From TrEMBL:
It comes from Ferroglobus placidus (strain DSM 10642 / AEDII12DO). The keyword Transmembrane helix does not apply. The keyword tRNA-binding does not apply. Probable component of a branched-chain amino-acid transport system. One of its GO terms (molecular function) is ATP hydrolysis activity. Residues 3-247 form the ABC transporter domain. This is Probable branched-chain amino acid transport ATP-binding protein LivG.
């Protein structure tokens, strides 16, 4: 397993938003977390990625305890978090948005004097175009991000994450505001990335689209995991049906 949580808990003003949550994320797979509003899904991924601090329990990545490490440290370890609302720099082009996501994009003093940065810059541009082509948006390379659709912005965000050479992508509602056809395209790209060893932990509510693409599903309610398993088998469990109907 690339990621595990052990009895992970989080409190807000006495409210237990996470209640001893245990999940396992397998490398090269897509793991989905679902549940009604307020079930703790986003809190879970915020704690895993260091945006919130855990009050109890721990998080392990590749066997290393990463509990409460800040997001920038987790980024260096290969964990990238994306958000429900994409956050590109809207005045920059699509290509520029990908290039600034590369770690240490600046040339540095020595590089500026020797022009040693030029090969690295060329390599970054080539990598960015490869990613844009893979995502099917290479034709938008010089378009300002502010002119893109919601689905295109989502692809740019995935592209920025790929520029970082991340291994684990933690995504909050990657299909939010995206048309069904493009949603399938995005999920198809994610499956292709799994084939080369990338891993996804996602929160998503559009079950009619996402279930056929994922490998494992965890269902949350009231801060706890109430069910786990594969696709439609999970959502047909009585305890899951009851939670959704009650919500």
């Amino acid at each position: 397993m690339i990621l595990r949580t052990f009895s992970l808990s989080k409190f807000f003003d006495g409210l237990k938003a996470l209640d001893r949550v245990n999940i396992e994320v397998e490398e090269g797979k897509i793991t989905l977390v679902i549940g009604p509003n307020g079930s703790g899904k986003t809190t879970l991924i915020n704690v895993i990625t260091g945006f919130y601090k855990a009050d109890e329990g721990r998080v392990e990545y590749k066997g290393e305890d990463i509990t409460n490490k800040p997001p920038h440290e987790l980024y260096k370890k290969g964990i990238v978090r994306t958000f429900q609302i994409p956050k590109p720099l809207k005045k920059l082009t699509v290509l520029e948005n990908l290039l600034i996501a590369r770690e240490n994009p600046g040339e540095g003093i020595i590089g500026a004097l020797t022009k040693a940065y030029i090969p690295k810059e060329k390599e970054s541009v080539e990598k960015a175009f490869e990613i844009l082509e893979f995502l099917g948006i290479e034709h938008l390379w010089d378009e300002e991000a502010q002119n893109l659709s919601g689905g295109q912005l989502r692809l740019v965000e995935i592209g920025r994450a790929l520029m970082s050479d991340a291994e684990l992508f933690v995504m909050d509602e990657p299909l939010a505001g995206v048309a069904p056809k493009l949603s399938h395209d995005i999920l198809g790209r994610m499956r292709e990335l799994c084939e080369i060893g990338k891993t996804f932990l996602i929160v998503e509510h559009r079950l009619d689209i996402v279930l056929e693409y994922v490998d494992k599903v965890y269902v949350m309610a009231s801060g706890r995991i109430i069910a786990e398993g594969k696709g439609k088998e999970v959502i047909e469990k009585p305890e899951v049906v009851e939670v959704y109907l009650g919500a």
